[in-house]
């Protein structure tokens, strides 16, 4: 941006009075940073930031960061770094993640860099001069939020404007392939892509110029004096600290700015200082100050306005900053073209108190030089940047200048930022708006779902179509052809409660597959934020910064189904699951249910292991558990370089001789695929299935964790509890002489069992947090096992001591059989577990048979980190078989024992 932008505010020597920008005299002509007082006006399409809770920014605590508003040092931050007290002055220029335009061909799309100033990584090198371009002392250098390229401010002009998304191009969902419904509500609050945060954030460092009160600082003066930068007390220097409110709204919110002026200052000086504090650059002659604590609101006037202010005990003097609305019957407003393609970023239109919206539209269309000037072809919206981006469609008879003046009464800062948008009356993206609705009863008929929703919505909010319906999960999609009705229905449904559960409702984005470049396989990321303490929260925040936020989904917000629905039309994409083995099973199960309605019915899945266990992740080389401090960018690079393999999946059918139905598995990761009238239930197994001792221990551990979940927050504690439970089992348990209670058939042959207390059927060679019960190859009568050969391994455990020896790696389990069809008959109540989810099964029999579906998984390339450091190639031949599995014996899974 041109250096002339800085000159738009008062400059005294080499520093700017409003935004604390300091520059050498010799460097003044090459400044590219706009002053924060006018930066908001330079954004054509403002996009609200998705503020992160400061308490979750642990990764940045050891680094020095600087506020992008006041440019001063700070501590806890989000990707756009601002003090909590500077948040109201932040520029709404977050990345625009959905920019699809109908009619524009892919080869004509040129995506531009999204530059962010300062707070660069400590190893940043300029892409042009190759020199260090970061600083720990101030805001310095620029970084593209899309591709990660860094450069000096002076070198930025030498970089091509087009961005190719850098190292992540192969898995990046391009913004020009995504469209979002055009509604009057902030889109980030509808689709659920922003981090949840407290409405009021506690200030971490308060500067002299920028200080604000929040709900916990309601005019309570905690300090009797304020120190300036030199440490001297203001009271000793004949100065006064004043609170300034910029309107009725700021007074209600208790949000103010603090200014320091001489007790002998003139009204003009106080007014100018107050305007600078709120980054207002309009003519000071249009504003005045009033005494907040005076019996009547009257304007301050010379002489000695500070000394004449009314005061309250224990509180600073306070003033109102007001707009002279009664003296201004006309003025200028800016009209922006929004998504309309024009060469002009905005036009300035003169308006009066008699100017209507229709008049303003006509003048704006004429100034933009648009061909179609029919009045009903365009509409006008009021866009407010008050803590986000809020749009309101205006009616044709409203008066724009009255709107501006009314906004000025509420907040002069918001009046400064408020703008008008010219848009096509008809949404160019089409009229079909999809709402995802969850937390409905499961397995109803389509007619019953329709009747249920119609009862909630009423006839005036009826949807145009319904489907797909995810019967097993009580979720579905309804489609509207009218934006207003869709938004009204969304809020109506969000207020509905059914069976003590509030309905989950989200507005879905649309992905245009023809706008995804050849060779790009967008990565669909699922994060289980409940896994691994706060690791899930940190990961979802990091991935939304590195990727397009619309390709990163929180599993706590509707599960995998919303993401799979959004990606259903993409022919080739990948999935990254951040969670434990149970989370992976959950995603694979959902893929089974939606695959037939999707272009890609078996996308390859990678894993970031969170929580405990993580046996499947270990087998696929993704590690025993994600460690805080790992670079999320490296995780995504590993996904790009990983190789595809197949994973056998098995159907476990329980048939009970009891009249009572089998109990439901508590975790949603293992959902019964069907329940028949003859008391049979089916489950999908990916890892292993156990009967007897290991399932009994798993059940005790699960019950203890359910009773006191807060205590099971560390692996050390989990192992201690597990060992204690194992010692208790040595005295006596209900799985003694299991071999007498069960009958085992493998591929139709009855297998004679030795003395056992537990049976384990393995699909993968990792169990119980990394142990290998099968052990190394040593017997010729068994084939070398793997997880894609259509064969299961059956092993036995003789007791608690044997179980401990297996988990510690001292010895393996007792090898019993291999086969593709296994039947186990048992005559009494026995503990069982499928993929770490335990319960007590009634007498009957269980059959394990190969599922018709196989999962496509991504296996991390062996030695990826070392190869990346040395710069060697990670390329592998596409048909190469998977390498031998390297197992670890440490750590654990969110749905397994440890």
UniProtKB/TrEMBL annotation:
Regions of compositional bias (Low complexity) in chain numbering? 887-898
Subcellular location(s) per record? Membrane
Task: List all Polar residues biased stretches.
Answer: 202-213
| Basic and acidic residues bias: start-end ranges | 214-232
GO BP annotation list: phospholipase C-activating G protein-coupled receptor signaling pathway
SMART domains linked? C1, DAGKa, DAGKc, RA
The protein's name: Diacylglycerol kinase
Q: Which reaction does it catalyse?
A: a 1,2-diacyl-sn-glycerol + ATP = a 1,2-diacyl-sn-glycero-3-phosphate + ADP + H(+)
Q: Does the keyword section mention Nucleotide-binding?
A: yes
Q: Where is the Ras-associating domain?
A: 329-427
Q: Which UniProt keywords apply?
A: ATP-binding, Kinase, Membrane, Metal-binding, Nucleotide-binding, Repeat, Transferase, Zinc, Zinc-finger
Q: What is its main location?
A: membrane
User: EC annotation?
Assistant: 2.7.1.107
Task: Indicate whether Transferase appears among the record's keywords.
Answer: yes
